[in-house]
Amino acid sequence: MSRTENPASRWSDQRPPETADEWIKRAREVAGILGEDAVARDRAGLPPHQEVALLKEAGLVTLMGPVEHGGAGQNWITAYRVVREVASGDGSIGQLLGHHYAWAWAMRLVGTPEQIAETEEHYTTNNFFFGGVVNPRDADLLVTDDGDALVFRGKKFFSTGSKVSDLTLLEGAFADTGRHVFAVVPSAHEGIVFGDDWDNLGQRLTESGSVEINDVRVPWSAAAGYVDKQFEQTAYGTLNAPTFQLVFTNFYLGIAQSAMRAGLAYTRGHTRAWPYGGEGKRSGAEEFYVLEGYGDLQSKLWAAETLADAAGVNLAQLLHSERNAVTAEQRGRAAVLIAAAKQRAIEVGLEVANRIYELTGARATANSVGLDIHWRNLRTHSLHDPIAYKRTEVGRYALLGELPAPTAYT
C-alpha cells in the first residue's frame, strides 16, 4: 500500500456494492492492496492512519450502518466474512476493522432507542471509525457520578485502535456500586492520552498500547442503557463477548488463509525438489510430502472456516433479533459454538503458519520472504484469553449439558 498515493481512489467512479457477495469482493480488493506491502508496513510499525482511510474509502467502515444515513445496511454474517477477507491481506487491519464493527454495535446491545439512533446516525453519516479502551484484565476505569455528568479516570495497559479512530468506547465501573457503564466519546478528547508503547511480537499495527483517561466527562444521557441512572440487563445485552470472540476467530482465519497463500506461492515459484529422492523430480511441487502437506492443511482450514461460518450464522440470528426475544439458553449455545470455532481456528492457523516452512524449504526462512508475519500475528493475539478455557466450555456442554455463564470473555 503506497504511502504517497491513495489506492482507494480506484473506487471513486464505481457504484457502491449492494449485495453481500459484492461487499465481500470489495473486502477482497482491499486485502489485495494491503497485502502488497504488509510485511514492510509491519516492520515500519507506523500508526495505520492510511490503512484506516483505505477502509473508509472502500465503504467498509459503514458496512452495517443504516441505509438512510448512507450505510450499507449489511448484517453480521457479511461483516464477519469481510473481517476475514481484510485480515487475509493484513492481520492487524482485519483486527481493527472487526473491533470497529463490535464497538459500533455495542450501543445496539444495551443503549436506549434514542442513544442507538443518535450513535448510528453520527458514525455512519461521518464515516467515523471506532476504537476502544476496554480491557477486562486491567482494573476498571473509575467512574464518578458528578450530578448531570459522569467522570471517567484511570489507566488501561492495553487498548485497540483508539489512536487511529474518531470515536472511542470507554467502559468503567462506579466506585460505590461496582456497576459497569460505557459511553462513546471523541478519540481526540484532551483527557485521552496514548502511551505509544505497543511493541509486541505481532499484530503490530493495531495500536494496542496503554491509554490514560484523565477526567473525561460525559453527560448522563450518554451513559449507554441508563435511564434515570438505572440500568436493566438482558440476555441480548450480554452478546458483546461472543461477538468479539467470533471477530477474533475470523481474523485468525484470515491470517491463516494469508499464510497458506504465501506458502503455496513460494512453493510454486521457488521450492526445489530434494535431489536425493531418487525419482528425478523437477520441482518441489512434485514432491509427495509437499502435496500431502498442503492437502492436509487446506482440508483443516476449510473445515475451520465452515465451523466459523456456522457460528456466524447462529450468532447473527441473535444479534439481529429483537432485544427481548433472545434467551439465556440461546446466548449460551451461541457461545459454545463460537468457543469450538475459535479453538479450531487457532490450532489450524498456528499449524499452517508453522508447517508452511516445512513445505517451502530452508530458503523461505529469509527475512526478505517475510513468512514469519503470519505466525507472529496469530501467536500474539491467540494468547488474548487461554484457549484451554474454550475447550473446557465445549467439554462442559458436551459432557454435562452446561452452558457457559456470561463473562467478559465468554
UniProtKB/TrEMBL annotation:
Listed GO MF terms: monooxygenase activity
Acyl-CoA dehydrogenase C-terminal domain mapped to chain residues: 247-384
Limits of the Acyl-CoA dehydrogenase/oxidase N-terminal domain: 38-117
Gene3D superfamilies in alphabetical order: Acyl-CoA dehydrogenase/oxidase, N-terminal domain, Butyryl-CoA Dehydrogenase, subunit A, domain 2, Butyryl-CoA Dehydrogenase, subunit A, domain 3
Keywords, sorted A to Z: Monooxygenase, Oxidoreductase
Matching InterPro entries: Acyl-CoA_DH_C, Acyl-CoA_Oxase/DH_mid-dom_sf, AcylCo_DH-like_C, AcylCoA_DH/ox_N, AcylCoA_DH/ox_N_sf, AcylCoA_DH/oxidase_NM_dom_sf
Protein name as catalogued: Monooxygenase
